[in-house]
Each structure stands twice: as structure tokens, then as C-alpha cells.
Predict the structure.
Amino acid sequence: MYCSKKDKRLAIIMLIPFLAVLFLFVYGFIFWSIRVSFSAWDSILPDMSWVGLRNYQELMGSLRFKTDIVNTIYFTLFFMVICIVGGFLLSYLLFVHLKGEGFLRTVYLFPLSLSFVVTGVLWRWIFNPEVGLNALLRMIGFKAEFGWFTSTYSIGGFNVALIALIIGASWQYLGYTMAMFLAGLRGIDDQLIESAQIDGAGEWSIVTKIILPIIKPITFSAMIVLGHISLKIFDLAYAMTGKGPRFVTDFPGLYMFETTFRGNHYAEGAAISIIMLLLVALVIVPYLATSMKEDEA
Amino acid sequence: MKKKVLAILVIFLIATAVVFAAGAKEKKDANTIEIFSWWTAGGEADGLDAMFKEFNKKNPELEIINATVAGGAGTNAKAVLATRMQGGNPPDTFQVHAGHELIDTWVTTGFMEPITFILRDAGFLDMFPADVIDIISYQGEVYSIPVNIHRSNVMWYSPKLFAQFNLEPPKTMDDFFRVAEVFKRNGIPALALGDNESWADTHLLESVILASLGPDRYRDLWNGKIKWNDPQVRQALTNYARMMEYTNRDHAALANMDAAGYVAEGKAAMNVMGDWAAGYYYSQNFKQGEDWDWIPSPGTGGVFIMLSDSFGLPKNAPNRENVIKWLELCASKEGQDAFNPIKGSIPARIDGDRSKYDRYLNAAMDDFATDAIVASVAHGAAISEPWLTRVNDIMAAFTTDLDVDKATREFQAAADRYAP
């Protein structure tokens, strides 16, 4: 791109305030949090004496944090799979078969306009073991005993109480992945599919051999977006369930909030947030690296 | 088009400028007092308002800035307050749970001024029970004025259910298990619990511990003088674990008020909750003696577990003189009698005007005047916030896995670190 020297200088001047704010309030405070996480700050008064990895070691030994990490992994996994598979199916149906696309698209996309807090309150009532879905099932004669998000049952570390949260979160984000996939499908050249049909390809092979490879980048971006949402999840669980009995619906974000702002365990809170940052970085950095490479190429 | 966008931008700029200008003006004015609390709705807000009216009657020249941050038990307000205090921008005065929540968080760290002189000068020191003065003091100085008292160790029960099975409300833990067994056999949850927030578990636990230890040893446990492997403490934890057999299955989905409601609706026999439940029953038109009644929680007769909201004087409060006037009102009979009947709590003073209080509150005032008084753990009076969050976490696990040995170890580890 062409730009004059004067333009360049102006651009740099215009960028400086933004960069200064960015470095101070984002990177500056990330480093500050890292420093706090190595400190003994455990009350309202800052105590910056160095304790090395003690806060991290204590977290690794705490039942609550271990449960949080396992919950996050399972939640992320199910949330991503449901949203991506479900979103693709919905968009594909809209793309090829269904009538009333405009209407349905809005219906699917609508939950996205709510905030997680609203979604949380909504599903909290639906999955309340006494008044919600269970009451409905009992009314038509089933013996509905399942405690949903209050269940303390766990299968191989997976707390079944998370199912309620996964459903709530997926309900909200299905429409989002559907919209992304639909845009991708619209971008596929019709001739490509038509010529495949002329060559005698069935629907299955058109989907798996042509459509899926073409929309791979979209799948990838959707995974990144969903992944970083679920790794940082706070508001949905906060509004819907809280930490739950024996932390069955607890996440690092909730723990961080409670321990820092209710318990004044500032150093521990900082350590939790740094671990969360690293988790998200694990997902985002490879994505940024590949997309930068693509830009260069 | 461009002009339109520009016009909108200008309007926004002016609007923000006006908002911030107003904020700046508030700060400078010496004829104001900023009172920070989490009383945003219901009887609490109305009670606060009644106190404001009293204050304005006496100090018509002063303007009250009612700085409230919504959120149950002040969880959000506390975060805002911490930011303001640490940033050197304290409100003139703020609501805080009397006891260790105030003392360990704000007094020992040097944020507060002692205010014994306010009580002494007004001759009010004898107007509060000695146990209460003890709870609000640190190294011989008083640091906050308690405006109300709530009782934690109350058992609410359903007279109808007890009459139906010809049972008496339990006065001891043994009685409790005996009647609970009857209810269980008849398919009725004996003990309603609403612990979607784990402080409700801690709330129940403190009554159960008091029942085993009695008031003096209860204080010693939370002072760190008694170990958690003490036989009486162990008995209390075992009792708690056993009580969980008699609870409603949906307890983890309920808020504490829902559980209190179960009792009045006849869906459960008993519930241990603070006496704000009485206010809730009155507001729902449940009748005392028919739908609900109360006794001290089993084994805690003659002891009053108290919690209290109080106001203090931060160092560098912008309008110190005005705060002193406010605190004088908080400590006075008029102030306490304006606030408490509406909030549904009893005055911290012993000379409240009985005619202003309802039947339950009058009974509570009787007990408050004669009982031994100890501080509540679950509501920040007996232990510090860092310790309390650990206790709540331990309870969230203990209530589910009922592992007494593990809980004992974890409670002791928390006490080792956070006991004074």
C-alpha cells in the first residue's frame, strides 16, 4: 500500500495514545498480576514479599481448583462440539432444504442477543429440580428424579451437573456458529457443487469432500471464538448455578472472583487469573501465529 | 448525514460532560455526607430512608448522598468499597458487618479512626450490652456503631406439621434427631435447607457447633484456642453430617428464603436461618403460631448468636464532622428506633421503644437483654473475611461428601493460617 511520509508520521502520532493506553492497561497490568501472583498479598493491605510459586502450589493442591480445571476442560469440549456440529447441521439445512430461511435464521440467532446473565437466569428456572422441566415431566407422569445442576454425581471426573450449563451455553451460541457456517456456505461457488453433481457425487461426498474442506477456516475460527468464551466462562455459571455443591458447577473465573473480592486473597486471585490467561493463550496464540503466516503468504 | 452524526456526537459529549461535572461538584461540597451501603431495596432501604429523615430533621443544612451498590450480603458493594479505600477515595462512612469483617479488613490495616469518644461523650457506652461492645472493639477502642442486631441461631418450624404428628419442637440435638426421624418416616423433609450459596451451610454449622460447645468454647474455637480435633467439635461436625440425611433434596437449587418459605408452606418441618426470615414471613402474610413459629436452634437456648450492620469513620473521610453527627444518630435511641422496626431487626441498644416492634422482635429483644451473646461466623462477626471464604469453601464440599475427617483437617489448616 502506498502512503506518503507525512501520512506515515501522522498515522504514528495518531496511534501513540492508543498504544500507550494499551500497554499500560493491558500489558502493564498483566505483568502486575504476574508479580502479585508471586507475592504474599492476602488481605486488604498489599504485601509484595516474594513467595515464589507458593500460591500456584496451593492452588494445585486445592480440591476447588482441581475441580474447576476439570470442569473447564469438559465444558469447553462439549460446548465446542455441540456448537460446531449443531451449527453446521442447522446452516446446512437452511442452505439446501428448508423454506422460511429468513425467519428461522432469526430464530436461531436470537439467543445470541441475550447476555449470559439472562440466559443463566432462564435456564436456572428450567433446570430447577422442583419447579422446571422436572415438574413438567412429573405432570405427564414421569418419575423425574434427576437433580440437573444440583446433581453431585460424576462420571470419570465429569460432573453431570455441567450438562445443564452446557445446554444453556450451547443454546445461546448455536445460532452464532450457524450464521458463520451459513456465510461460508453462501461463499461456495455453485458451479463447484453442480459439476460434482454432474460427475455423480452423492450428497454425503459433496459435504465431506467439497464443503467441509472449503469451510475449514471457518470451523477453525469458530473453535477459537467458542474456546476462549468457555475458558473464561463466568457470567453464565454465576447467574445460573454459582459454584454448586462440592463445586460441581464451579469455574476458575468464579473462584477468582470470590477469593479475591470476598476473601481478599489477592495473590491467590492473581495466580488463578494468570493460569486462566495461559489457558486462553494456549488456544489463541497458535491461531494468531497461523493467521499471521497466511497474511504474509 | 455528516451533520447529523456530528450533532449526535456533540450531544453525547455534552451529556458526559454534564454527568462528570455533577460528580465533581458533589465531592467539593462540605455540606454533604456520603453514606455507602448495600441497602437498595425492601425494608432495608426504607429503614435507611427513615434514618435519613431523622438525620435531616437534626441537620437540615446537610445533604445526604446515598451511595448504594446493589447485591445480596454486600458482595458487590464490598468490591467497590475496597477499590475506593485502597485508592484513597473513601466514602464519608460505610456499612460494614460489625466484628471481624470490620476489624480484620479495615481496622488492623489502619484505615479507620477509633470512635469510642462518640459513645462516651453522648453517655451511650452503657446503652449497649458489654458483649456487643466487645465485638465492635479492637485493643480497647470502639471502631463502629452497630445500628441493628439480627439473630442467627433461630429455628423456624411449622406448628401444623408438629401438631399433626403430635411432636414438640426440639430443644436439644437429641430431640432434633428424634423428631426428624418421625418426619423422615412420613416422607417429609425435616430440615429445610437452601444453600445455593454456601454461606447458608456455614450459617447452620455455627448453630450446630454452638450446641455442642456452649458460648465460651464457641468463642475459643474461633479465637484459635481450641483445635478442630477436639471431641466436642468433632461431635458437632458429625451432627451436621447426620442432619443432612433429613434435608430437602433440592437444597442446592434453593436460596435461603426459599427454604424458610418451605416451612411456612408446610413443605418442610424446620429451618435454621437468621431472623430476617420473620420479616419475610410477615411480608408474605404468613401467620405466626399457625404457619410458622420459632425457638432457638436445638441446644442453643440461652445463647444469642448475633450479627450486626454498623457504620464507622474512615481516616481521611472528606467530611469528618458530618460523619460524627451521623454516627451520633446511629447510636441514638431515635436513630435505632427509626431504622429497625422497618428493617425487621432489633436495636443494638437495650432501651428500644417496645411498642414500635412486632411480636417476634419483642421476643428477640427479651432474649438479647438476658442471653449470653456470641458473634456469628457466617456473617463476618466472629472471623475475618479471608478465613470465612475458606470456611464457606470447606462447607460446600463437606455438605456433599460428609467426610468429617477431611473437613476437620481442612478447618484446622484454615484456622492455623487465619486465626488471630
In short: The domain at 70-296 of chain A is CATH 1.10.3720.10 (MetI-like fold). The first helix of chain A runs from residue 5 to 37. Strands of chain A lie at 154-155, 158-159.
